[in-house]
């Protein structure tokens, strides 16, 4: 076996590979840029080599620097993780010339599958179902319009070398093609150095389902079931799960065998993923089509590990060393259910704008297993997390039930409190993975864990993820790639809450205010009678809703309904846990994040932020105390929603605009964002020029 490997990546995936290498007794080498000098993965590795400035193009994307670091440290192999150089044939070839093993597939397979146009041709030859579309190079916008008309709308335009949601546009009409084709070309060129575009039919009620492949250098290839990755935003995956609630055993076998045939056709070995688009409108499950093959480890690989117990990183290392797979297809089963949520530095309350900056406070939920800076080293299955059930070969058992939910939590992260989520890289903070015997239990455990994330200093999507886990449509398994756009057409404003839960929350807020004022009475040095007796009757205003709360001994009456429960929220605390039940309802356990803003409490829990004003009922009857400030009207300004570069102005001063008309295009994190007019008006003033770097909230233009 290799004695030392280098990880040509950063963040949580570098931590993930190091964790398995440690388990295997392999020493590790990290490479890092200026921005990552203090990152956890650097400290975790046995050695670390600095490779350049913060921009990836000057560090992680320069193959010569990676190879020089491997030679300098004596690393015998390189694991590329995902992204960066993981699917560059030139990188794998350069390693081979230096006698350094590439922990990944053969160069020929990377080349064959790396080009979406060529890979589609190969898939057809291998007997794999493919989406109807145009396979070939598209000359210009007019050619794109003709092709789209022939295929039939809607169509999807994709950059040939694209990935990660970049270089993709959905077109429902000729106008959409004309507006988006050039943007797709630019994104492909800027992100991947390739401006070729292809067009294919957009599948109705599409589900994104992928098959995990694993092969060795001796001709053995397996499929490790499927993952459902349909919940996406701008084609970037947000939630992944295994297995899929849509896939039947017959469908799984058909998809798996086609994907193995494709892998065999290109001589594939190592871990890889074949992505499929599946028509949710076809109840037979037979309408599935090849999208692309990712010749690397996937971000969402932990859910496959959780239901199979197979450490994919370990298998990749063993295969690269030349070992045969010790597994057969019959060994691959499905044990329980796993869900992964991607915790991103983005603000869902502001249109999911990127939110880079310093992690002033970072405290993730307590995990049974971590793939990160505090990873447990004595875990029975380092890659796949704790075993789902029963006893492992070394006698260690599954963890006990957590709270109200049976199962376990795995956390893959690569950040630390005081560190920075940089503008130079992907804004992922952590991957939260839960396993449980059933899908509902895995989702319940996600909600419980998300309630216990503590992140301050930048925006994050924890509330949004919790809202998805609670959504009736998610719980029913009725998923499509349009789930987020369909369910949150006007943006995200917090998870829906039941009347009973709001009653519990009102009781908790009133109880805390009672406790706070009661403690204030006992501060030493006060004159007798200086403070009135603390009230037991309160008015709690949650948003626009009002509750009258009468506190009793261990319970409260909220608008005449009895609420029982407990809460450890004490004065000065910023986090708490509570339990409560309304009369004959089920008991609810939840975590809270608490902030004091003026005379109000901001309480965040269960995927929503609630502003609570709590007053003694007698005092609150004076309506003047409940006056709310009206926010200023900013609708006449086009405000830059994120730090970025103004790529294009679509209008000029004096021009008339209509609702929905493109006004400006801003590039942020290598993706172009089209800003549109919200209402009809005349451009009064332009405040920015094309090519200018803009700060968040910068005014780009003004309307009369």
Main attributes of the structure:
8-stranded antiparallel β-barrel, Dna Ligase, domain 1, Rossmann fold, 704 residues, alpha+beta, 17 helices, globular, D-amino Acid Aminotransferase, Chain A, domain 1
What would you say this structure looks like, in words?
The protein is α+β, with helices and mostly antiparallel strands and 704 residues long. It has 6 domains: 101 residues, Rossmann fold (3-Layer(aba) Sandwich), CATH 3.40.50; 152 residues, ATP-grasp fold, B domain (D-amino Acid Aminotransferase, Chain A, domain 1), CATH 3.30.470; 70 residues, 2-Layer Sandwich (Dna Ligase, domain 1); 159 residues, ATP-grasp fold, B domain (D-amino Acid Aminotransferase, Chain A, domain 1), CATH 3.30.470; 116 residues, Glycoprotein, Type 4 Pilin (2-Layer Sandwich); 67 residues, Beta Barrel (OB fold (Dihydrolipoamide Acetyltransferase, E2P)). 25% of the residues lie in helices and 32% in strands. The strands form 9 sheets. Strands 14-13-10-11-12-15-23-21-20 form a 9-stranded mixed sheet. It has an 8-stranded antiparallel β-barrel with strand order 25-26-27-28-29-30-31-32. The protein is globular, with a radius of gyration of 27 Å. About 4% of the residues have low confidence.
């Amino acid at each position: 076996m290799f004695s030392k490997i280098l990880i040509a990546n950063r963040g949580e995936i570098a931590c993930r590979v190091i964790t398995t290498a440690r388990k295997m007794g392999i020493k590790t080498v990290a490479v890092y840029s200026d921005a990552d000098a203090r990152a956890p993965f650097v400290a975790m590795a046995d050695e670390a080599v600095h490779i350049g400035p913060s921009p990836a193009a000057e560090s992680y994307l320069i193959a010569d620097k990676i190879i020089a670091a491997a030679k300098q440290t004596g690393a015998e192999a390189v694991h590329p993780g995902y992204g960066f150089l993981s699917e560059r044939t030139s990188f794998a070839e350069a390693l081979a010339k230096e006698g350094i093993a590439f922990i990944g597939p053969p160069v020929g397979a990377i080349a064959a599958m790396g080009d979406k146009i060529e890979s589609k041709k190969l898939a057809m030859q291998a007997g794999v179902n493919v989406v109807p579309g145009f396979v070939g190079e598209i000359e210009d916008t007019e050619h794109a319009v003709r092709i789209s008309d022939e295929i039939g709308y809607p169509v999807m335009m994709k950059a040939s070398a694209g990935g990660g949601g970049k270089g993709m546009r959905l077109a429902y009409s000729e106008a959409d093609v004309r507006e988006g084709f050039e943007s797709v070309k630019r994104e492909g060129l800027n992100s991947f150095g390739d401006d070729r575009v292809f067009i294919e039919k957009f599948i109705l009620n599409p589900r994104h389902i992928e098959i995990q492949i694993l092969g060795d250098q001796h001709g053995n290839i397996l499929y490790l079931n499927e993952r459902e990755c349909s919940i996406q935003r701008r084609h970037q995956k947000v939630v992944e799960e295994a297995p899929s609630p849509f896939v039947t055993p017959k469908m799984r076998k058909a998809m798996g065998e086609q994907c193995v045939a494709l892998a065999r056709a290109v001589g594939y070995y190592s871990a890889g993923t074949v992505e499929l688009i599946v028509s949710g409108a076809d109840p037979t499950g037979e309408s599935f089509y090849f999208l692309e093959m990712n010749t690397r480890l996937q971000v969402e690989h932990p859910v496959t590990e959780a239901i199979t117990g197979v450490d994919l990183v370990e298998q990749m290392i063993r295969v690269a060393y030349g070992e045969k797979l010790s597994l057969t297809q019959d060994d691959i089963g499905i044990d329980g259910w796993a869900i992964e949520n991607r915790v991103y530095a983005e603000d869902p309350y502001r249109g999911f704008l990127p939110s880079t900056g310093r992690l002033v406070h970072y405290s993730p939920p307590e995990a049974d297993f971590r793939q990160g800076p505090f990873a447990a080293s004595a875990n029975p299955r380092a890659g796949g997390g704790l075993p789902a059930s029963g006893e492992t070969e070394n006698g260690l058992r599954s963890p006990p039930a957590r709270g109200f939910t049976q199962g376990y939590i795995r956390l893959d992260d690569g950040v630390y409190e005081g560190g920075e989520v940089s503008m130079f890289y992907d804004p992922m903070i952590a991957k939260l993975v839960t396993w449980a015997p059933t899908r509902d239990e895995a989702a319940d455990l996600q909600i419980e864990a998300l309630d216990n994330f503590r992140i301050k200093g930048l925006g994050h999507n924890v509330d949004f993820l919790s809202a998805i886990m609670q959504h009736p449509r998610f719980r029913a398994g009725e998923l499509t790639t349009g789930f987020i756009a369909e369910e949150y057409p006007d943006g995200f404003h917090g998870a829906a809450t039941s009347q009973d839960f709001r009653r519990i929350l009102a009781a908790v807020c009133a109880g805390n205010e009672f406790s706070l004022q009661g403690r204030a009475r006992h501060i030493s040095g006060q004159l007798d009678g200086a403070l009135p007796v603390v009230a037991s009757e309160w008015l709690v205003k949650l948003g626009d809703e009002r509750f009258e709360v009468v506190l009793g001994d261990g319970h409260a009456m909220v608008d005449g309904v009895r609420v029982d429960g407990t809460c450890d929220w004490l004065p000065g605390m910023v986090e708490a846990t509570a339990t409560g039940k309304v009369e004959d309802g089920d008991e609810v356990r939840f975590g809270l994040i608490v902030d004091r803003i003026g005379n109000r409490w901001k309480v965040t829990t269960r995927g929503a932020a609630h502003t609570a004003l709590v007053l003694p009922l007698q005092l609150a009857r004076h309506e003047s105390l409940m006056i709310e400030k009206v926010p200023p009207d900013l609708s006449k300004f086009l405000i830059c929603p994120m730090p970025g570069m103004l790529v294009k102005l679509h209008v000029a001063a004096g021009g008339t605009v209509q609702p929905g008309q493109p006004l400006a295009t801003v590039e942020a994190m290598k993706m172009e964002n089209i800003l549109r007019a919200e209402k009809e008006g005349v451009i009064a003033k332009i405040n920015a020029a094309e090519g200018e770097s803009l700060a968040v909230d910068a005014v780009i233009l003004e309307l009369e």
